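Blinded run. Sample ID left blank on purpose so nobody reads anything into the name before looking at the predicted structure. Input follows.
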Amino acid sequence: MPRALAFAEAAPEAAAARLDAGTIHLWRIPYALSQGRAPLLALLAAYLDMPATELALETDPRGKPRLAAPFDQHSLEFNWSHSGDYALVALGRGSALGVDIERLGKNLRALEIAQRFFDPAEARTLAALDDQARDDAFIALWCAKEAMLKESGEGIAFGLSRLQFSHNDHDGWSLARIDPALGTPGHWNLQAFDPASGYHGALAWRGGPREIVALRPAQDGT
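Blinded prediction complete.
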């Protein structure tokens, strides 16, 4: 089942000093599309102890954002996602990250999308559920696949069916098979969680286990 995270209020400048190789900082930020990347840049600048106006990002050939030179010399890794009224930003050191957030209750074509793009066994699992359970399970599965593909830098063009998950009512989705280009299931850590009421999220990374520290800025009063 998705993990319930308690997002503690924090100042980014103070939190930055506590980020180490054993932790991942997961920020939930109020967000509107009109803001563009400004909230992301402000958070990254706080962790790098520099003005946001001096920070520059670029995208890799597959569209994943990253720090541009000379800022890429820092060990800071990040990924972000936004949906509805929130953005999630994952920050860590020494390992790539992938994060995804999706708002529940959207007008979904869950079964149509799953049958076209997911592994056939996943589509059959979703088809066996009632409408509400299917939509929730679909969003959870989408988040898991998206987070992993974002961590890898491949993006969904790599193929959503090349990651296969199994499902049970108690634990939700768990990674069962993966294209060898992305390693083996044992290489991956995947955490499902509910970042806010009406939202689902997933965080992915490779390597050893890490502590997830969930944070929110003071202006996020929820």
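Unblinding after everyone has recorded impressions. Residues 131-152 form the longest helix (22 residues).
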